[in-house]
Amino acid sequence: MRDNVMDSDLVLDVKGVKKSYGGVEVLKGISFSLHRGETKVLIGPSGSGKSTLLRSINHLTHPDDGKVYLKGEEVTDSNIDKMRARIGFVFQDFNLFSHLTVLDNVRICQIRVNGVERDKATRRAYEELERVGLSDRADAYPAELSGGQQQRVSIARALAMDPDVLLFDEPTSALDPELTGEVVKVMQQLASDGMTMVVVTHEMSFARQAADEIIFMEKGYIVEQGDPQTLFTGAENERTRAFLNVIAEHG
Ligand SMILES: Nc1ncnc2c1ncn2[C@@H]1O[C@H](COP(=O)(O)OP(=O)(O)OP(=O)(O)O)[C@@H](O)[C@H]1O
Ligand SMILES: [Mg+2]
């Protein structure tokens, strides 16, 4: 058992998070932790609470109960702006600023939120665009890019903030199948570079290759969690097995 207080590698510690909507509890006390360099993949049926859990971590959804610690510091309403700057979030629908170029999308939060000087922010933006293979599209507007390219810009934008952790909520599910691969490849590279990430995805090739642990959620609970090898070959829980079979068949 790791000791949280002494554990300097502990990046994210989620403890007993609960959330209800209209009297229905959609998160029933979720706890998990994430260490530096770890990638955890969160799976589960539609409505199981995956997005609500990710959004509760940085208070895009306000949790009713429970606590979230980022590197030992509790995420609270009073420090949320500072905490959000340290928690990268990649959304299903990219969420880029449509009136800004790719370059401005990637540098604006560095400048406005982190107070980084403009030239430095520009250099960092190009580095991150290079990393996602888009440094040649810096002057384009989001509408001029494919969905896969837009999602890679959104990843570059998150990375440019130097986050402690990156959260991905179904980053490829709005993409045509032929564009999914280029985004998955970037995420696999990030995982092998040692980025700390929580990824909601049904891309099982990514889960197999990049996840240190897969967490299976259903109806607001964590039903089972384990390394990909164990879960894919011998999940203990019948519902985990059934779910994995369904996504193996239908992608
Ligand atoms: N803002 C909201 N208001 C009311 N109910 C909500 C809200 N957000 C989520 N819910 C409900 O909470 C439950 C969990 O939703 P959530 O979006 O977290 O599921 P999910 O696992 O991400 O599903 P999906 O795979 O479809 O994205 C669902 O029943 C959903 O209808
Ligand atoms: Mg969701």
Structural overview:
This protein is of the alpha/beta class. It has a single domain (10-250), classed as P-loop containing nucleotide triphosphate hydrolases (Rossmann fold, 3-Layer(aba) Sandwich), CATH 3.40.50.300. Helices cover 39% and strands 25% of the residues. The strands form 2 sheets. The chain has a 6-stranded mixed sheet with strand order 6-7-8-3-9-10, with helices on both faces. Strands 2-1-4-5 form a 4-stranded antiparallel sheet, covered by helices on one side. The protein is globular and about 55 Å long. The two termini are 36 Å apart. Magnesium ion binds next to helix 1. This is Glutamine ABC transporter ATP-binding protein.
Short description:
With 251 residues, the protein is α/β, with parallel strands linked by helices. Helices cover 39% and strands 25% of the residues. The protein is built from 9 helices and 10 strands.
Question: What's the topology here?
Answer:
Blueprint: E1 10-21, E2 24-35, E3 39-43, H1 50-57, E4 65-70, E5 73-74, H2 80-86, E6 87-90, H3 102-112, H4 118-131, H5 147-160, E7 165-169, H6 177-192, E8 197-200, H7 204-210, E9 213-218, E10 221-226, H8 228-234, H9 238-250
Parallel strand pairs: 3-8, 3-9, 6-7, 7-8
Antiparallel strand pairs: 1-2, 1-4, 4-5, 9-10
Helix pairs in contact: 3-4, 3-5, 4-5, 5-6
Magnesium ion is lined by residues 50-51, 169-170.
Membrane topology: Peripheral membrane protein
InterPro entries: AAA+_ATPase, ABC_ATPase_HisP-typ, ABC_transporter-like_ATP-bd, ABC_transporter-like_CS, MetN_ABC_transporter-like, P-loop_NTPase
Keywords: Amino-acid transport, ATP-binding, Cell membrane, Membrane, Nucleotide-binding, Transport
